[in-house]
């Protein structure tokens, strides 16, 4: 993942360091291999990766492009760590060199940054938008900037098995693109978000990778040469679409079609992830939040026969604050149409570390025992919290693509489930969370469970089952990303 570092602080510290450090970044130049319209591409490397490592990808891009592509690979940053100040120096030096070689300010300029290299050029892009024809963010993104505020054409390009800038990281950018696309269909060409399948973080570059990449990236599945071909194709199309004054309308239209196709394929790829995330929590229009998965969990506990489903309504209420959940109880009533209405209660507990999915859904449910006093019907066997969580993984695997499930079964650390840990009081349950125990080959999930018997004279807390539930989003993130990353103990 891109370094979570505040760039302003980073720049201040670095500037002090630069004052006592001699030297400046340098550039490696790749001469064009085609005739045609001159175009410049300047590449900013990822953290602790030298610019020369991007030569194979850029040479493949030059081969695939119909343009006369001049490439500068910036390198020799202080501590081999790209930063905004030195990136500006490297870009300006490259532009001066290209001018010396006969290019002028009218030559279309494209910038590319890999991982941290993308983050450090954000300010430059905003300050020099009138000089830039387009930007390619390779496994990178601007953490605080909305897509609609970016002043130049920009493509996000990442791999489906990138262990640092993951597919779940890219969902934010893609959702913004889809929202913009509803207002302006040209946005799919101006701000495309593309995920290249079977490519990882390291395969934008070449050679030995830094420790952070080795520890976090998902192992490669295809040869690097194949990855370069896939990545270069998308980059070539994007650059062609945004090269001005191009006397080849047919090629530009084909490139636009190919960019649109790549975005459509990304949309299809991400749909299972969006669907699983949507099951965590949604908001009724101008009203409360609810959880489809909490509703499903309550139905699993009730396990009412199909013939009686129209006599019951299961709903849920999701809270924003722990104190609200602590003070709440699940409810069951009979409405005016004699339908039994069960309202489960819950809260999303946020992600930690490198994860995007919620850690858990803390859930308050009604037991089958108390439901049966409201409804004369056939009931199947009720379930504990473990069974609900097992069902969650099954649903995630049903949503995921066959390739993803096969990869998980073949290479991933398998998710298993331990028996629930029984607690004897509500205050004790309030302090529990869903347990994740990892080894080199497995992830074991364990919920706590609080159950109370049905007490006729005790309202609310009578006949309840409280669980720490696995989120479908966490389950699918495990399948697509987390189970495949190296185990570091």
TrEMBL record:
Highest taxon, organism lineage: Eukaryota
GO MF annotations in UniProt: hydrolase activity
Signal peptide stretch: 1-23
SUPFAM superfamilies (UniProt xref): alpha/beta-Hydrolases
UniProt keyword terms in alphabetical order: Signal
A Pfam family recorded for this sequence: Abhydrolase_5
Residue span(s) of domain Alpha/beta hydrolase fold-5: 41-206
InterPro entries in UniProt: AB_hydrolase_5 (IPR029059), AB_hydrolase_fold (IPR029058)
Entry protein name: Alpha/beta hydrolase fold-5 domain-containing protein
Native species: Holothuria leucospilota
Lineage: Eukaryota, Metazoa, Echinodermata, Eleutherozoa, Echinozoa
């Amino acid at each position: 993942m891109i370094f979570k570092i505040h760039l302003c602080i980073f720049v201040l510290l670095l500037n002090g360091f630069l004052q006592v450090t001699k030297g400046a970044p340098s550039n490696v130049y790749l001469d064009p291999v085609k005739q045609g319209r001159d175009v410049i591409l300047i590449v900013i490397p990822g953290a602790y990766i030298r610019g020369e490592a991007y030569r194979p990808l850029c040479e493949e891009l030059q081969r695939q492009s119909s343009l006369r592509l001049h490439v500068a690979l910036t390198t020799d940053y202080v501590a081999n760590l790209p930063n905004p100040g030195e990136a500006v120096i490297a870009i300006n030096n490259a532009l001066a060199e290209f001018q010396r070689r006969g290019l002028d300010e009218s030559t279309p300029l494209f910038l590319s940054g890999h991982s941290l290299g993308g983050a450090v050029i954000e300010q430059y892009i905003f300050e020099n938008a009138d000089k830039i024809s387009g930007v390619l963010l390779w496994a990178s993104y601007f953490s605080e900037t909305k897509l609609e505020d970016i002043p130049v054409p920009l493509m996000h390009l990442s791999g489906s098995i990138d262990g640092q800038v993951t597919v779940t990281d890219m969902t934010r950018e893609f959702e913004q693109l889809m929202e913009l696309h509803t207002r302006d269909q040209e946005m799919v060409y101006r701000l495309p978000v593309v995920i290249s399948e079977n490519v990882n973080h390291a395969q934008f570059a070449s050679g030995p990778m830094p420790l952070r990449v080795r520890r976090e990236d998902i192992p490669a599945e295809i040869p690097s040469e194949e990855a370069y071909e896939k990545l270069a194709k998308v980059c070539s199309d994007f650059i062609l679409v945004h090269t001005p004054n191009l006397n080849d309308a047919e090629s530009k239209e084909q490139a636009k079609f190919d960019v649109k196709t790549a975005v459509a394929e990304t949309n299809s790829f991400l749909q299972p992830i969006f669907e699983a995330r949507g099951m965590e929590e949604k908001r009724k229009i101008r009203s409360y939040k609810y959880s489809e998965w909490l509703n499903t969990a309550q139905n699993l506990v009730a396990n009412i026969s199909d013939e009686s489903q129209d006599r019951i309504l299961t709903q849920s209420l999701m809270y924003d604050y722990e104190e609200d959940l602590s003070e709440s109880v699940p409810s069951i009533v009979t409405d005016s149409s004699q339908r039994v209405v069960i309202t489960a209660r819950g809260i999303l507990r946020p992600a930690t570390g490198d994860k995007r999915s919620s850690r858990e859904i803390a859930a308050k449910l009604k037991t089958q025992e108390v439901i049966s006093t409201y409804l004369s019907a056939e009931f199947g066997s009720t379930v504990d919290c473990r069974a609900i969580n097992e069902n969650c993984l099954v649903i995630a695997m049903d949503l995921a693509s066959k390739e993803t499930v096969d990869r998980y079964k073949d290479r991933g650390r398998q998710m298993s489930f331990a028996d629930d840990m029984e607690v004897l009081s509500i205050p004790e349950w309030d302090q529990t969370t869903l347990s994740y125990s990892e080894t080199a080959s497995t992830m074991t999930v364990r919920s706590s469970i609080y159950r109370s018997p049905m007490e006729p004279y005790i309202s609310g807390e009578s006949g309840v089952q409280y669980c720490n539930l696995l989120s479908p989003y966490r389950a699918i993130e495990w399948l697509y990303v987390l189970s495949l990353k190296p185990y570091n103990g």
